[in-house]
Write a structure and sequence with these properties.
mainly alpha; flat; 0% strand; single chain; 30s Ribosomal Protein S18; binds zinc ion; 84 residues
C-alpha cells in the first residue's frame, strides 16, 4: 500500500470543521457524561487526539480533563487490556 498524498493539500484548509461543542453550546462537557466521553477515548482507552476529533483547543482540553476525572472515578478505563 503505497502512500501517495501529493495533492489535496488544500483540503486541510478548505472546509473549516467546527468543533461540536462550539457548534452546539447546549452540549455540556462533564466527567458525569461518560457516554459522551467514551466517544473521545480510543478502543485502547487513550484520549483521541484533537486532529482526529476536530475539537477546538479549548474544548479538547475540557474533554481531556473530564476524561481524566472520569478515569479517576472509574467511569472511563485507563487502559483496556482485553483488546490486546
Ligand atoms: Zn470548541
Amino acid at each position: 500500500m503505497a502512500k501517495k498524498r501529493m495533492k489535496k493539500k488544500s483540503s486541510k484548509f478548505g472546509r473549516k470543521k467546527k468543533c461540536r461543542f462550539c457548534a452546539n453550546p447546549n452540549l455540556e462537557i462533564s466527567y458525569k457524561s461518560e457516554r459522551m466521553l467514551q466517544r473521545y477515548v480510543s478502543d485502547r482507552g487513550k484520549i483521541v487526539a484533537r486532529r482526529v476529533t476536530g475539537n477546538c483547543a479549548k474544548h479538547q482540553r475540557m474533554v481531556a480533563n473530564s476524561i481524566k476525572v472520569a478515569r479517576f472515578l472509574a467511569l472511563v478505563p485507563y487502559v483496556r487490556e482485553h483488546y490486546r
